[in-house]
Each structure stands twice: as structure tokens, then as C-alpha cells.
Sequence to fold (138 residues):
Amino acid sequence: MQDDLHFDPVHWRYWIVRGGEEIDLTSTTTLIKQFGLVDWTWFKPEHATAGSLRHLLIEKLVDDDSTAATALVVKHPELEDSLHAWSLFCKESGFEASHSEIPLYMEATDTRAGYAGRVDSVSYYTSPSPRDRTRSRM
Fold:
């Protein structure tokens, strides 16, 4: 069950408990770094912080918690552009997210290491994207 996944956002640590023992799981963020999928020539630690704030904002918007989203923007005014961009993107594309930041993990086996992460969103389009509408007129 995914309910038994624990996460410490300060240390970016995921774990599950089996038989009273904590079992650490490698985060998908760590795997992305280990496999060299981050271009460190431009990515800086402050980008991770900004990205985490954007994820939190979108999570609140998807959860329909406008009070928390507004409070987050008031506390972090740099999110104002992200708020407008998200709203415009959803309106123009027909994009609707039903869930956001869903924690998931895969336990280790004899042949596979365990890992954990969060799915950004479960979403769908309520109307064809602008690209599809353009293609259909060609």
C-alpha cells in the first residue's frame, strides 16, 4: 500500500516500515541526478527551492484550496507569475488535473532496488489542445 510511505521534505528522505524496521528508498530525484539527467551547468540549488514552491502551489490549486494557494503567493510573491501561467495554461489547453503530488514507491526485491517519488499530476484534457485543433484544420 502507498499509505505506508513516509517522506521527510527537509532531508528529502523516503522510507517504509516493515516488521518495525525503517527501510530507506532512493528518491526519484536522486536517481535522476545519479543518471546524469540534470544539467548542472545551469541548475542551481535555489532552482530546486523555486520548483518545490511551484509544485506546492499547483498542488493547492488542484486540491481546490484557493485559500492556501493565495496565502502561498502572499508569502512568496515570486509565485504570482506561476499562478497566472498555470491558470492560463489550463484555460487555453483544456488541461485539468484531478490529483497532484501523489506519493508512490516500489519496494526492493532480490533483483531491484527500492525507490520512491511523487507523480506531478494525474490529468486529462477536456478539449483538444491548440496544436490538435490546428492540425485538424490542415
